[in-house]
Each structure stands twice: as C-alpha cells, then as structure tokens.
Request: fold
Amino acid sequence: MKNKILLSFVFLFFSIFTSNVFSASLSELLEIGKEQDEIQSALKDETKCYNKISSAVSDGQLTIGLSKDEIFNEYGQPSVIVPQNDGQTKAVYKPSNRSYFDNEKVTLLFDAHDKLLNISIGQN
Reply:
C-alpha cells in the first residue's frame, strides 16, 4: 500500500512538473512566433519605403529643400539614420534584403535645419 501511495505521489509530482514545463515552453514558442511575424512585417515595411522613395527620386518628385518630416511622412522611415558631425543628418533607404554597404539604396542628406540638401543613389 505504501508503494502505491509513493508511486501515485511520484506520478502526480512528475505530471504537474512536466505540464508546467510544457505550458511554459508552448507560451514561449507562441511569443517567438509573434515576434517573427513582427520582424517580417518590419522587413516588408523597410522594402516598401525603399520602393516608394526610389520611385519618387526616379520621377523627380523629391526636391532639394523639402523638410525631413515631409519626406518621412510621405515615404516612411528610412532604414538607417546617421547623424553627422557637422549637424547634418544622413537618411538611408534600402531594401530589407540588402546591406547598408550595398549599392542598392537611396541616401538623403539633410542640413542642420532638417532641409534636404542632397540625394544620392547607390553610393556609400
């Protein structure tokens, strides 16, 4: 009888322990899946913004003197924003499957007052 009680206790203990481990693991996997969806969405947005700004440059819609806010509101956030030592700001739009160092990108240079100074395509 003692063996049955002990065996039941051990079985109950391991059942509870393993179900909690499984539950924690499952919730962690669900969270990881959610994060992966968010990452994929951000990558799609990055490429979408690059395509919009690239088309605008090709069509001559971007003009020197536009404000950073006007451009970011119209074409989305750049992939990378790099403050320069002289108060200027460099904004780089690129497809998500490209590196910052690849030539497939659009780089905008803004002055210290956030006005567009220069547009370059595919240069580092």
Notes: The radius of gyration is 26 Å. The beta strands are 80-83, 89-93, 106-110, 116-121. The chain is about 50% helix and 15% strand. The mean pLDDT is 82.
